[in-house]
Amino acid sequence: MRSRSLGHRAPLLWLVLPLIAGLTVGRAFSGLTPFGTLVASLGLVVLAWRMRDSSPRAWAGALVAAMMLAGAAAYSLHRARLAVWEDLPPREVRLGLRIDHVFPRAATAATVTGLATVTRTEAHLRELVAQRIYFSLRRRPGERAPIRSAVVAAGGVLGTVPRTPPADSFDGYLAAAGINFRLNRGRILTEETPPTRYHRFCAHAATRFESILGYGLTEKQPRLAGLLRAMMLGHTHELNEEQRTLFMQSGTMHLFAISGLNIGVIALALESILRLFRLPALLRYLAGGVLLWLFVDITGGSASAVRAFIMAIFFASARAWRRPGNPLAALAASTLVVLLCSPLEVFGASFLMSYSIVGALFLFGVPLADAGQERWAPWRDLPRPAWRWWHHGIAAGWRKILSALAVGIAATLVSLLTGVQFFGMLTPGSLLTNLVLIPAAMVATAGGFASLLAGLAGFDSGVLVSNHAAALTLLAIETIVAWSVRWPGAFLPATFAAPWIGPASLTLLLAVMTAGYATDWKRAGRWWPPVAVVGLTLIFGVRYGAA
Fold it and tell me: What is the pLDDT of residues 487-541, one digit of tens each?
C-alpha cells in the first residue's frame, strides 16, 4: 500500500532552490553588478526557452543557472548598499519618514520603534531617499505612537547596520529586511501626512483586540492576560523576564509568534464558520482569505504572520479549485512568492526556522507517520465491518499518537540545530514538551479567537468564558514548561564550533530528507539518515557550556 503522503511533485522547486542559492552567492560576493547579472540571467532564460524541446537537460541546466543569477542580482538590488556607507560615522540628521511597521511595545514605553521609508532628507544625504531604515523615537508624555502609512518629520542619530551581521542578532533581522541604517535617539518633530483611513481602522481594531483579550483577566490575572495577548497578537513584550527564560529554555518560545500554528487554527475556524452560511467553495476561499488577511494586518503584519498567511492561502487553493491536495507544491509556491516579494528574508532566523520545520514535516514527519500506521495498524486481520465502536476509537487514538510523535520528531530534528544556531541553546526536552504543548496552544488560540469574535459581536459573557478557558489552558502550559525545564539535561547552553557548521548541517539535513522523500524512503536507508546527520553534528560540531 503506497503512502498518500508520498509521490507529490513540486516543479517550482526548480525555481526556488536555485534562487536561494543565487541569493547566497550574492551575499558572499557582494561586488557583483546587478545590471550585468540580470542581463546574463535573461540571456539564459531565452536560451533555455529555445532548448526546451531539443535538449531537456540543457534546458533545465540553463533555467537553474538563470535563477541563480537572478538571485544574485536580487540580493544586490534589495540590499542597495553603497560602498561609501561602510565607514560613515554616526551623525545628526533630520528626515521625513513614512511609517511602514511599528513594533509592539507597552503603551507607557518611553520610545517607539519600527521600520520606515525615507521620503525626504537634507541635501547631502539624498541617496537615502526611498531607503528603508529602523527607527527608535522618543515619545513625549501622552503622545501616541505613529500609525502605519503616516509621514512624520523626525530627527536623531543615523548609524549604519553592518553589511553581514550574524543571523541571530537584531542587526541580522534588519539586514534580512533590507535595512542599511538605524535612526537612534530620535524624536518626532511633526506629523506631515496623517495615516490612511484603512490603517487608522487597523490601529483602532488592534486596540480593541487588546481590550477584548484582557477582559476579566487584566485586573485579577495580568500574567495570564499577557500570555494570551502574546499568543494572539504577538505582543511578546508582555511576557516578563521569568516567562521569557522558561519558554526559551524549554524550546517553546515559538508558541508566542504569530506564525503557522496560530494562523492555521484561525484559518480553520474561519472556514468552519463560513461553512455554516453554505457559501460555495470559491466564495468561502475568497472571504476566508480577506478575513484572515485582516487579522494578520490588524496584528501588525509581521513577516512571520505574512508568510504563514501566504502558506495558508496556497494550502486552501486546492480545495477552492477542486484539485488534489499537494502540500509540497503549496509550500514551494508560498516560498517562491515570499522570496520574490522580499528575497532577503531567506537570511533571517524566522524564515529559516519556519520553512525548515514545515518542510521537514512534509518530507519526513508525515511519511514517517504513514509508515508507522501501515506497520503497526491494530486489528490488521480483522475486517473493518466487524469492528465495534471501541475498535474504531482505539484505532483513531493510535493514529493520532503516531502522527503526533512522527511530526514531533521531524520538528525536533530541525529545532535542535536551529536552537543552537540562533539561541545558543540545545533543548533535548523540547520533543516531549512540544508534543503536549502544541495541541494545548491550539486550544488556547481557538479560545482567544472565540473571545475576539464574541467581543466584536458585543457578547460580553462569551468573551468572559472564552478568555478564562484560554487562560486556564495557558496556565497549564506555563506549569508544564516550568516543570519540564527542571529535568536533568532538559536544556544546555551550546554553540557551534565554527559559524559555518549550523547552516551547513541544516542544509544537509533538508537535503537528506528530500532524497529520502524522492525515493519513497526506500533507497535512502529508510529513516535513520536525518537522525544521523543531527546526532553527528551535535556530537562533533557543538561546544557545550557557557561561552
Answer: 877 788 899 999 889 889 999 999 999 888 888 887 655 788 999 999 999 999 9
Closest CA to 261 of 389, 381, 372, 354: 354
Residues forming a β-bridge with 186: 137
- Judge whether 467 lies within some domain: no
Nearest to 161 by CA among 133, 198, 186, 202: 133
Residue 200 falls inside a structural domain:
no
Strand-pair partners of 152: 97, 191
pLDDT tens digits, one per residue of 292-301: 999 999 988 8
* Strands (E) located in 359-509: 425-426, 492-496
- Note the helical H segments in 361-429: 366-375, 389-423
* CA–centroid distance for 213 within its chain: 23
Same-domain check for residues 534 and 421? yes
Please, which residues have CB within 8 angstroms of residue 113's CB and are 6 or more apart in sequence?
Answer: 102, 103, 105, 134, 135, 136, 137
- For residues 399 and 258, state if they share a domain: yes
DSSP one-letter code for 258: S
Interval 36-57: pLDDT, tens: 777 777 777 777 777 766 676 7
Residue type, 141: P
Q: Nearest 5°: phi and psi at 192? A: -85, -40
56-79 helix and 13-28 helix, angle to the nearest 10 degrees: 50
Same-domain check for residues 410 and 355: yes
**Spatial separation of the C-alpha atoms in residues 484 and 491, rounded to whole Å:** 10
Domain count, the chain: 3
Q: Give the single-character DSSP code of 190.
A: E
Same domain, 178 and 67: no
Angle, CA of 277, 279 and 285, to the nearest 5°: 120
Give the other-Cβ count within 10 Å of 456's Cβ: 13
Q: Which three cell numbers stand for residue 142?
A: 501622552
Q: Report which DSSP code applies to 110.
A: S
| CA–CA dist 353, 437 (Å, integer) | 18
Range of the domain at 501: 249-369+389-459+475-544
Angle between helices 34-50 and 56-79 (to 10 degrees): 160
Residue 224 within any structural domain of the chain: no
Same domain, 282 and 404: yes
CATH code: domain of residue 119:
2.40.50
pTM value is 0.84
